[in-house]
Design brief:
Elements (H helix, E strand, L loop, with lengths): L18 H29 L11 H14 L1 H33 L1 H15 L7 H7 L3 H26 L3 H9 L4 H36 L7 H10 L3 H28 L2 H4 L2
Helix pairs in contact: 2-10, 3-4, 3-6, 3-8, 3-9, 5-6, 6-8, 8-10, 9-10
Length: 273
């Protein structure tokens, strides 16, 4: 039997030997399947008199909306506003989470003292802090940045601590015997050893931040991707709404892809191949 052909009675899917080609072909098939299901859902809405108004959720009206949104600058303005909040929140989470993670990994006392309160705070929905954030911070931007940072700091901190826990303690003894100062230990040993884990934590934090960002922008701001979705809903521009949803998905996918490439770059296993 030809190994490239499935047995009789089974859907024949060619086995592509090249990983790159296989990834592209399978990805295209997956996207086409998703579009087909999406179009089927739009047709069901259209043929039902009670839901015909919502038929513009379909893929064809959605793609037709992009030229208008691009020409009006709606996409670029929303992306810039949301991007600023996302980057600011993530940078704040990294600046706080990495030092906390290093303390958790290096100090048993700090780890035992902080584990319960950190786990408690981690399990609180970030959006539940919105009323307090609005009161404490002067503007909506600051409040949203706080929510993003609060949601993102835990994956960074715990991933950093887990990475440091895997470092062989003998390395620190050798470094001290060679006269390494605390700053040298941090820059020449700790940070290079945990870079892979920190980037993994940042990837997880990015996913959490991206999820928190949009609903946070549905509330009081007048810019950003979340606001664009709210505005499209209120004006009954359902094709614009789904177009902005696609923009959110594409940007999130690209950002995750960047994190994956950085993780591969700093993976010891990958570099050793």
């Amino acid at each position: 039997m030809n190994s490239a052909v499935a047995p009789t009675g089974v859907l024949a899917i060619p086995r592509l030997k090249s990983p790159g080609v296989r990834r592209v072909v399978y990805g295209a098939v997956g996207l086409f399947t998703m579009l087909a299901i999406w179009e089927l859902g739009a047709l069901l809405l259209y043929f039902n008199p009670g839901t015909r108004t919502f038929a513009t959720f379909g893929p064809i009206p959605t793609f037709q909306a992009f030229p208008t949104l691009i020409e009006e600058g709606a996409i670029s303005k929303a992306v810039v506003a949301s991007g600023y909040r996302l980057v600011a929140g993530l940078l704040l989470a990294i600046a706080i989470g990495v030092p906390i993670g290093i303390l958790m990994g290096r100090s048993k006392m700090f780890r035992e003292l902080s584990n319960s309160p950190f786990q408690f705070l981690r399990m609180i929905s970030p959006l539940s802090w919105m009323p307090l954030a609005v009161i404490v911070f002067a503007g909506w931007d600051q409040a949203i940045i706080f929510l993003i940072a609060f949601a993102s700091v835990w994956p960074v901190a715990f991933a950093t601590a887990a990475g440091l826990a895997k470092v062989d303690p003998a390395w620190f003894k050798v470094a001290r015997n060679l006269g390494a100062k605390p700053l040298h230990l941090l820059t020449q040993l700790i940070l290079p050893a945990i870079t892979f884990d920190v980037l993994t934590g940042i990837r997880l934090a990015l996913g959490v931040a991206w999820i928190v960002l949009v609903p946070a922008e549905l509330l009081g701001v007048t810019s950003g991707l979340g606001y664009a979705i709210k505005d499209a809903r209120e004006t009954l521009s359902y094709n614009h709404l789904t177009a902005m949803v696609l923009v959110i998905g594409v940007i999130g996918y690209m950002l995750d892809g960047i994190c994956v490439q950085l993780i591969k770059r700093y993976s010891w296993y990958h570099r050793g191949e």
